[in-house]
C-alpha cells in the first residue's frame, strides 16, 4: 500500500488519501477468494476493453521510459511510447506464436483476456488521435528491398492499423527522402526532417513518430511570462522563460513516500499533464520513476484535490530523433533482432534491424479561456501554496478518456533535449 498524503488544511482538518500500485476498486472492501484470502476487485475503469488495452501498452511505455532514463541519467528524456507500441503491435500480426508471445509479453497483452486486441487497438488509436486532442501519432513497418510480403499480412495491417508496409528501394538517399516525406505528411510538417543516413543492412525498420502541442483549459497570461531561474542542481541555474499564474486552479498532492509534490493541469480535449516535482532539486528521480504504472497514475488522477496555487511552468519546445533499438533489446525483445519467426509476413527469414523514434512536443501560454470552463470544488487552504516547476521534474501526458500514456518526459534542462 502506497500513501499519497495530501497536506491540505481546511480549518484544522488534515486530509489523507491512499494510492496503490495495483488497480483496485474504490467501492467496497476486498472480497475473499476460495482460499479465504482477500482479493482486490478490478477497478471498473479497467473493465472497459479499450481502457484495459491502454493500460497495458502504457505499462510498456513506463518500462521503456525507465530504460531510457537509466541509460541517460544526465540528459532530458522525451518519449511517446504509444507510437512505438503501435509499431510493435502491428509487427506482431506477422509473427508466429513464439515470436508473437515475446512481443505480447512486452506489451502486457498476456494480462488481457481479449480475443481481438488489434480491433480494440484500432478503437484506441481513433480515440487518442481525434482532432480535438491535438495529438498526432503514426507508425510504419519498413522492409528490405525486393521482399515479397504476403497479402494477408498487408490486409491485416491495413484493417487494424490503417497503414501499409513500405518496401525500400535500396537507394539510401531515395529511401530517406521517402520516409521524410511520409513523416511530414503524417505530422503536418511539425516534426523535423531527418538528416541521418539510412543504414544499408536494413531487414525490418520500425518507425514511430508523434507530435503534441498542448492547449491548456485555462490559458496563461503572456504578460506574466518572464525569464526566471531554473535550478539544474544546488549550484547551477539557467534563465528560462517561465509562465506564471498567481491564481491557478490545479489538482495537487504531496507524496510522502516519494518525497515529491504532484500536480495535474487540465488540457483541452480530455487530456491532462501530471507533474512530479521532487521536494529538493538534488533529489534522485529514480524512486519516482520506479513507481510509475498505469494503475498508480489512475489512482493519482482519482485522489488529487483541486486547489488554488501560485504556479510557474517553463515554456517547452522539445524534439527528439534517434534509435531506440538498444532499449528494446534491454526489454527482453533481443530475439526480435536475432532469430524471430515472421513467417506470416514472408517466406524469407527476416528480423528487426532498427527502431526509430521522431518527436515534437511543445506547450506555451495558449489555452481555451481565462477561467475554468466548469465550476470546480476548490479545497480552501489556510496557507498560500506555491508550485514552481523551476527544477528537474517528470511529466506524464495522459488521455483522460482511456488512461493512455501519450508522452512522458524527464526535464533536467528545459532549454532542450
From TrEMBL:
Name of this protein: Pigment epithelium-derived factor isoform X1
Protein's UniProt keywords contain Lyase: no
Domain of life: Eukaryota
Organism of origin: Dipodomys ordii
Keyword Repressor: no
Domain (Serpin) ranges: 62-414
Record's subcellular location: Secreted
SMART domains referenced in this protein's UniProt entry, alphabetically: SERPIN
Gene assigned in the entry: Serpinf1
Entries under SUPFAM superfamilies matching the protein: Serpins
Amino acid at each position: 500500500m502506497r500513501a499519497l498524503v495530501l497536506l491540505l488544511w481546511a480549518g484544522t482538518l488534515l486530509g489523507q488519501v491512499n494510492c496503490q500500485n495495483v488497480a483496485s476498486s474504490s467501492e467496497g472492501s476486498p472480497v475473499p477468494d476460495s482460499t479465504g484470502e482477500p482479493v482486490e476487485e478490478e477497478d471498473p475503469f479497467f473493465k472497459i476493453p479499450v481502457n484495459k488495452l491502454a493500460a497495458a501498452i502504457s505499462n510498456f511505455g513506463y518500462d521503456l521510459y525507465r530504460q531510457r532514463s537509466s541509460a541517460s541519467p544526465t540528459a532530458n528524456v522525451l518519449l511517446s511510447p504509444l507510437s512505438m507500441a503501435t509499431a510493435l503491435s502491428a509487427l506482431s500480426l506477422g509473427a508466429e506464436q513464439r515470436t508473437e508471445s515475446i512481443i505480447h509479453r512486452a506489451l502486457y497483452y498476456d494480462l488481457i483476456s481479449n480475443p481481438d486486441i488489434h480491433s480494440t487497438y484500432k478503437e484506441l488509436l481513433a480515440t487518442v488521435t481525434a482532432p480535438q486532442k491535438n495529438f498526432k501519432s503514426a507508425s510504419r513497418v519498413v522492409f528490405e528491398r525486393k521482399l515479397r510480403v504476403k497479402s494477408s499480412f498487408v490486409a491485416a495491417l491495413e484493417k487494424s492499423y490503417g497503414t501499409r508496409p513500405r518496401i525500400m528501394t535500396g537507394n539510401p538517399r531515395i529511401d530517406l527522402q521517402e520516409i521524410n516525406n511520409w513523416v511530414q505528411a503524417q505530422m503536418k510538417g511539425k516534426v523535423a526532417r531527418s538528416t541521418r543516413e539510412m543504414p544499408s543492412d536494413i531487414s525490418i525498420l520500425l518507425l514511430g513518430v508523434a507530435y503534441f502541442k498542448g492547449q491548456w483549459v485555462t490559458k496563461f497570461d503572456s504578460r506574466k511570462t518572464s525569464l526566471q531561474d531554473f535550478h539544474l542542481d544546488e549550484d547551477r541555474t539557467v534563465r528560462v522563460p517561465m509562465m506564471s499564474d498567481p491564481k491557478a486552479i490545479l489538482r495537487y498532492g504531496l507524496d510522502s513516500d516519494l518525497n515529491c509534490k504532484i500536480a495535474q493541469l487540465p488540457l483541452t480535449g480530455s487530456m491532462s499533464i501530471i507533474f512530479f516535482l521532487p521536494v529538493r532539486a538534488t533529489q534522485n528521480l529514480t524512486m519516482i520513476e520506479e513507481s510509475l504504472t498505469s494503475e498508480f497514475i489512475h489512482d493519482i488522477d482519482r485522489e488529487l484535490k483541486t486547489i488554488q496555487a501560485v504556479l510557474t511552468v517553463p515554456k517547452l519546445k522539445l524534439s527528439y530523433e534517434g534509435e531506440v533499438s538498444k532499449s528494446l533489446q534491454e526489454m527482453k525483445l533481443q530475439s526480435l533482432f536475432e532469430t524471430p519467426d515472421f513467417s506470416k509476413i514472408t517466406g524469407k527469414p527476416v528480423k528487426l534491424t532498427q527502431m526509430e523514434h521522431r518527436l515534437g512536443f511543445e506547450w506555451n501560454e495558449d489555452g481555451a479561456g481565462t477561467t475554468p470552463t466548469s465550476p470546480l470544488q476548490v479545497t480552501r487552504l489556510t496557507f498560500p501554496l506555491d508550485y514552481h516547476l523551476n527544477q528537474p521534474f517528470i511529466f506524464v501526458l495522459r488521455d483522460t478518456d482511456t488512461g493512455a500514456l501519450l508522452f512522458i518526459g524527464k526535464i533536467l534542462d528545459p532549454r532542450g533535449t
